[in-house]
Design a protein that fits this description.
By secondary structure, the chain is an alpha+beta fold. It is built from 3 helices and 2 strands, in the order E-E-H-H-H. The protein is 66% helix and 14% strand. The chain has a two-stranded antiparallel ribbon.
Length: 101
Amino acid sequence: MGQVTLKINGYPYVLGCPDGQEAHLEALGAELDARVSSIRAQVGNLGEARLLAMAGIMLADELADARAGQAPAPSFEAEAAERLTRLARRLDGVASKLARA
């Protein structure tokens, strides 16, 4: 069993993986780190959990589009910024509701 330490948003995450898959896992971690960095640059540092949740939701949305056979948006950056803005508003709403509870 292989083991990889990924650095995402400056924090180390130690993950196990099948032998021989270390480089693949490192590449996936680098992609996630790049997404989190992009989100942080656009909306600020919202906290580790929110940044990771937003990046995960964006990746899941892209995967759903790919599975449905939809082509990526012509302007990825504009679309990503719009998605991030909508997600940030939704997450802020949820956080506000949780804080009141």
